Each structure stands twice: as structure tokens, then as C-alpha cells.
Amino acid sequence: MNRRKVTALCLAVLMLAGCSGKESQQANAETESSVSQSVSPTPTPEPEPEVYQVSFSATGDNLIHDVLYRQAQRRAGGSGYDFSFCYDNLREFYGGYDLNWINQETLVTDTLEPSSYPCFSTPGQMGRDLYDLGMRAFSLSNNHTYDQGARGIADTLAYWNGMPEDVTFSGLYNEEMENEGVVLRQQDGITFAFLSYTEYTNGIPTPSSAEAHVIYTSETERIQSQVELAAELSDFVIVSCHWGVEDSHQITNGQRQLAQQLADWGADLIIGTHPHVIQDAQWLTAQDGRQAFVAYSLGNSLSAQARPDEMVGLILTVKFEKTLRPDDSQTLGMSEPKLVPLVNHYDAGYSNIRLYLLEDYPEDLARQHGIRANYPEFDRTYIQNLLTENVQAEFLQAA
């Protein structure tokens, strides 16, 4: 082949290659444009519901006899009081809950002289030690609220109003209170309302010059008004009732009737105190279809009482949940109510009074309980039988 033909052939090949490259670039550009047009922008994610949860515990009658505050005084070296020893075995337990409530059965002040049965007065260090334990909600309405007359009420209010701002207390009312006396508390995104009532005050009438007063369980119109308002103002309504018959495991018709009325009016959780011994619990269906829960008696917390069944108490635990949707609708729920057995232990002669969870209370210690001097049958078997006879298995936490 001559050079001219070769040169012409090479030129032809180069021209074809150039055309092919230009067409390929155009095709690639068109493909990229097509892909770019077909990919839609990333959609904005839908807002997620906000879920708030609060774990709650409630403890029964904190009944402070003279032997308790004398022991606390000795532990403090004779200057002041130290009640922390009594509760140390429960510190980890209460630390596992967002909100802890207790029925403070006796007046607590820094001003009144300590006194015991029948008219109680407890040193103020008790409240501070309970606060350090993790207690933040206190019920003050019970049959001993009027034990120290008008001054007792005034000094009690001054004491609790002087506690840290995250303390909530209920059970003393006057006409100047906001929201008809409904006590509100914000806790981790959930609003709680607290109310406390008592069946009686040991025959002591309301002192004429008292700064505040209790509301008796017989004042149903007043209670209905408060509970209905509480339901409007809060997510959950917690009502304490100091009711029933002392040292009786039997729930009275009056307790059952009032519990159902409270549920119908808007209560979600009803906490029973006063009998000093344990009673059963149950779910209630309110008129509007809600489920409310009542524990009729939690029995004692700390005390120096003398009957074997007064040594066994219950801590009620429950979970509250609030789901808030982007459209501002919400769902409220209360679940998993459990009754955790508690033992009030003392050594011989009412010495070293202290509390244990039953699950942490060994048989050998039970057999050393000071109460066995008069009731030798007291041991873990006695405790277990007492629990199973009086509390439904579905609510009782095994120990």
C-alpha cells in the first residue's frame, strides 16, 4: 500500500474516532441529566411522638415513737438526731425510682418538743433524712394531724414550706390555697396532682385558730370538686386516704365505696394508709372507662409497734407513661403495679429499729426479731403466709 493511501486511511480512522468520542460525551451528558432529573429530593422525616415515663413508689405509715427518736439522738452523739440508720437498707431501692412518696404519720418540726403516743411530735431531722433517702412527696393528712393543736399545724406548715423546692406535700388545706388546694408537681414531662384525706383525727376537732385543716373522707362534695379539678389540671391524679380499721386486714365497705367514687371523679391511683397492717389491692373501672388502681393499706413503714403483722408493710410501685403526638393528642397510661414486701425489724428490747426489703431479710435475722419474745411464731414463713393470705398474687412481688 502506498504512503498516500495509508495516510488517507489513518485520517479516516481518526475522524471516525473523533465523532465517536463526541457522540459518547453527548450520550453521557444526556444520561447524567436524565438520572439527575429522576432522583427526587430526600423527604422531610415525620415528627416522632414524645414519650415521657416516671417510675413511682409509695410507702406506708412512718410512725415515729419515742424509742425511735431516742435511738436517733444517741446515734447523733446526744446533739441532734440521726434517723438515717433506720432506712439505710432501702437507699438503693428508692434510688431506682423517679418519684418516691410516703405517708408521714407524725408531725415533723424543728420547734416542737418530741413526743410519742398518743400525741406525736417528731424532730425535724426525720424529714431531712427522708429527703436524703430520696423521698420527694409527703402526705400529712392522718389521725395525728391535730395532735399538737393550732401551733402544731402552723409549725408543720412552716417546716415543710422550708424544705427544698422539689418537695411536694399535701393534706393541709385553707381557703387561700391555689387550685382549691390541689397540689401539682411536674416530674420528667408529666404533671401529677396530689390530694390527701383522713377518716378522722382521734376525736380532736379542728382548732379554731388553725392556719389550715384536714379534709375528712366524709366530705364527699368537697372531695369530688377537688378531684375533678385535679383531673383537669394534671395528667395523673394521686389520692391518699387515711381510712379503714386499725390492725384489720379486712377492707371495709366504706373503703371500697370511696375508692370507686374517687376513680369515677378522676383519680388514677389511690393509696390507702392507717390500718398499720397490709390489705389487698385491685384495679377499678371508672365511669369513663379508665382503669384506676387502689392499694387499700400499705401497712407500716418505720414504727415501734408490738404486733407481728404490724412488722410487715408494702411499698407500692407503678409506672406512669405519657405519649404526646405531633398533632397535640396524647395517650396516658399507668402500668405494672407491684406491692413490694417490707419488714420493720428490731432487736431485743426494741433496739436498733430498722427496715429491710423482704428479699434482703434472711431467716436467721427473722428469728432474732425482738417481737419473738411475745410472738415466737414470727419468721419468714409467718411473713410469707401473711402476704399470700391478704394480697393477690398478681400484685405481690416475690421475695
Identify the notable features of this structure and list them briefly.
399 residues, alpha/beta, Purple Acid Phosphatase, chain A, domain 2, six-stranded mixed beta sheet, 15 strands, 26% strand, disordered N terminus
What are the SSEs and their pairings?
Blueprint: H1 3-38, E1 50-62, H2 66-75, H3 84-87, H4 91-95, E2 99-104, E3 108-109, E4 122-123, H5 125-133, E5 135-139, H6 149-161, E6 168-170, E7 183-187, E8 190-198, H7 220-233, E9 236-242, H8 253-265, E10 269-273, E11 281-285, E12 291-295, E13 312-324, E14 330-347, E15 351-357, H9 363-366, H10 380-390
Parallel strand pairs: 1-2, 2-5, 3-4, 5-6, 8-9, 9-10, 10-12
Antiparallel strand pairs: 1-13, 7-8, 11-12, 13-14, 14-15
Structural domain count: 1
Low-confidence sequence ranges: 1-37
Describe the biggest sheet? 7 strands, mixed
Give the amount of beta strand, in percent: 25-35%
Question: Which CATH top level class fits?
Answer: Alpha Beta
Looking at CATH, which topology would you report?
Purple Acid Phosphatase, chain A, domain 2
What share of the residues lie within helices? 25-40%
Shape: globular
Count the E strands: 15
Radius of gyration: 33 Å
Distance between the termini: 106 Å
Number of helices: 10
CATH architecture: 4-Layer Sandwich
> What would you give as the CATH superfamily?
Metallo-dependent phosphatases
Element-by-element helix/strand order: HEHHHEEEHEHEEEHEHEEEEEEHH
